[in-house]
Amino acid sequence: MDALSNDVAEVLISQERLCERIHELGRQISADYAERAPALICVLKGGYLFLADLTRALSIRHSVDFMAISSYGRSTQSSGVVRILKDLDADISGKDVLVVEDIIDTGRTLSYLIENLRSRGPNSLRICTLLSKPARREIELHVDYVGFEIPDEFVVGYGLDFAEAYRNLPYIGILKPEVYQRD
Ligand code: IMP
Ligand code: MG
Description:
The protein has five helices and nine strands, in the order αβαβαβββαββββα. By secondary structure, it is an alpha/beta fold. The strands form two sheets. The chain has a six-stranded mixed beta sheet, with helices on both faces. Strands 1-9-8 form a three-stranded antiparallel beta sheet. Bound molecules: inosinic acid and magnesium ion. Magnesium ion is lined by residues 43, 46, 71, 101-102. The site of magnesium ion (MG) has 5 residues, from strand 5.
């Protein structure tokens, strides 16, 4: 056992289940966007592995672009303060935009982002998230594609971090509370 996986209390979603579900999402999105070429917008940093696998599960033409917005820093609580750290390279007006997120927790980050993107005049705007914690939602959001609904636990791995660590774990794991209660 390496040091990173020692901090994981439980594997919530295995690598195999992630792979299976992402291929299902890929088939569904390919069917829904047939004849269109959606612009996939990855929300950095957490969404990078999900985007990489989702894009390879799509059979349709599409583009990818990246946006970075401020997250929790070292804390596990949402500050409610959202800042754009990196904006899109391309103009999305008239495009069919699909936002690719790692996780929706309170919904604060994404609702800010969606309003911002909507003001740029896309033809359509949908959300695809790998994970959702419905019990924690503070702002109502319509989410078009959800990989997994998960309980109210702090999870890491497959792109998700705590203090920038654990993103490389190939599964979604529940972080031991003593790890984030340390500081
Ligand atoms: P929201 O604004 O509360 O919906 O927070 C969304 C962001 O918080 C996500 O994009 C993640 O960066 C982070 N986040 C929320 N829950 C978790 C978690 O369980 N593990 C890791 N990051 C999380
Ligand atoms: Mg995120």
